[in-house]
Write a structure and sequence with these properties.
The protein has no helices and eleven strands. Helices cover 0% and strands 50% of the residues. The protein has 124 residues and is mainly beta. Strands 2, 4, 5, 6, 9, 10 and 11 form a seven-stranded mixed sheet that branches.
Length: 124
């Protein structure tokens, strides 16, 4: 049974850091393209970053470039999102997801497995 379980969300002040985790079961994290998405209140769910099977990463949201880092730990079968220099506009529910196809990896339609989400709130 496939499960993705996010954790690490919290309320922080602007300029702070958080590390989100996504524990994966049912497949090996290195066997699929994996991604983090986020959805703010009343907004669409948008891609943040993708980690390809081969270890390369794609930044989907230009606003996070240089501040967020996606990574994985194969031994722990987990995906991570290190978020530094957080801004109020980063406030959202963050979701990890596993891709079912190799194209359009910043779009939600390419993903068939999703976690339940973890809330990140950044105050100014």
């Amino acid at each position: 049974q496939v499960q993705l379980v996010e954790s690490g969300g919290s309320s922080v002040q602007a300029g702070g850091s958080l590390r989100l985790s996504c524990a994966v079961s049912g497949f090996t994290v290195s066997s699929k393209h994996m991604a983090w998405f986020r959805q703010g209140p009343g907004k669409e769910r948008n891609g943040v970053a993708v980690l390809l099977r081969d270890g390369r990463s794609i930044v989907c949201a230009a606003s996070v470039k240089g501040r967020f880092t996606i990574s994985r730990d194969n031994a722990k079968n987990s995906l991570y999102l290190q978020m530094d220099s957080l801004k109020p506009e980063d406030t959202a529910t963050y979701y990890c997801a596993a891709a079912m196809i190799d194209s359009n990896l910043c779009g939600t339609a390419s993903y068939n497995y999703w976690g339940q989400g973890t809330q990140v709130t950044v105050s100014s």
